[in-house]
């Protein structure tokens, strides 16, 4: 059996949730060099979110932690917190987009930054010394970046909280912005009921745009999606695919998606809150199968 076949075969078995100990949230899901990676927020109280760990696995079952892949010490403009990373590879380099500094005052930088490394596990270093998306010029709360490279090589960065989602185009260097076709810096693509945590995937030429909706930290926090023939929408909400299960967990939302190597098997990595927890930050990382029906719609995910 080749490594790819082994990986796809192993991935069909169920992972045990949560996939790792500790409080983590907002997982980005990627496959780099045939290995699965999860990049999450360290989900402690805000002032303790000063670094990122990552988790990797060769079979989606056994996960290993890569510690402190990016530390706030290495980002001069970031003073308070780092969260919601999204990582991607281009031309042998790894780009990690992150939020830093929630809005505290008009004198404080805040926004989405980008760090770079030659390895998926880092160390990552701030690439441009300031936010790539600040809070003054890009039309939505600059949080929850999600990076996506289309088959034609065009790179997009989706972002936004407070019920607004926007998209910008990245240049090939991945650390500067291009304009959209009409010359604008960004486009608003907010689907109905969007709250935060955008995520884009493509299957059979169709763009699936997913997001978290419902109340942050509340039991109705969930994942919904829309489909489009363009990465820029329009995105018409289809419906929910992941939500709380009173027998398993609440608050299942912000997520990423894996395609198992060499197969059409898809997995959703997401955070949820154990039934015994009431602290909003007590969120854990989980992975479950994401299945499609014949007509391409996403079937409801069963939390395990
Ligand atoms: O982890 C901090 C925030 O929680 C993220 O920005 C949101 O998406 C929510 O998951």
TrEMBL record:
Keyword line: Carbohydrate metabolism, Glycosidase, Hydrolase, Polysaccharide degradation, Xylan degradation
Family, per entry: Belongs to the glycosyl hydrolase 43 family.
Domain of life of the native organism: Bacteria
Site feature (Important for catalytic activity, responsible for pKa modulation of the active site Glu and correct orientation of both the proton donor and substrate) residues: 144
Protein name per Swiss-Prot or TrEMBL: Beta-xylosidase
Keyword Hydrolase attributed: yes
Alphabetical GO biological process terms: xylan catabolic process
């Amino acid at each position: 059996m080749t490594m790819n076949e082994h990986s796809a075969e192993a991935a069909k078995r169920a992972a045990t949730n949560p996939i790792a100990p500790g409080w983590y949230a907002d997982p980005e899901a990627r496959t780099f060099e045939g290995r699965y990676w999860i990049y999450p927020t360290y989900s402690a109280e805000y002032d303790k979110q000063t670094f990122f760990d990552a988790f990797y696995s060769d079979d989606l079952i056994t996960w290993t932690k890569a510690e402190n892949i990016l530390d706030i010490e290495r980002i001069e403009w970031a003073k308070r917190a780092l969260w919601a990373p999204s990582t991607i590879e281009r031309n042998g380099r790894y780009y990690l987009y992150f939020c830093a500094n929630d809005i505290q005052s008009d004198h404080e930088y805040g926004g989405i930054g980008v760090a770079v490394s030659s390895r998926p596990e880092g160390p990552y270093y701030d690439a441009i010394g300031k936010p790539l998306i600040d809070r003054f010029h890009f039309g939505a709360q600059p949080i929850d970046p999600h990076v996506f490279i289309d088959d034609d090589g065009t790179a997009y960065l989706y972002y936004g909280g407070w019920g607004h989602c926007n998209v910008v185009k990245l240049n090939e260097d991945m650390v500067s912005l291009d304009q959209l076709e009409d010359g604008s810096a960004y486009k608003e693509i907010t689907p109905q009921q969007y709250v935060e945590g955008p995520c884009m995937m493509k299957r059979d030429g169709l763009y699936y745009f997913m997001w978290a909706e419902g109340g942050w930290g509340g039991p109705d926090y969930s994942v919904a999606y829309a489909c489009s023939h363009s990465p820029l929408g329009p995105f018409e909400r289809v419906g929910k695919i992941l939500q709380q299960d009173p027998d398993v967990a609440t608050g299942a939302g912000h997520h990423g998606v894996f395609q198992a190597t060499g197969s059409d098997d898809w997995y959703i990595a997401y955070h949820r809150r154990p039934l015994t927890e009431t602290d909003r930050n007590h969120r854990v990382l989980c992975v479950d199968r994401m299945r499609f029906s014949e007509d391409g719609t996403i079937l409801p995910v069963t939390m395990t």
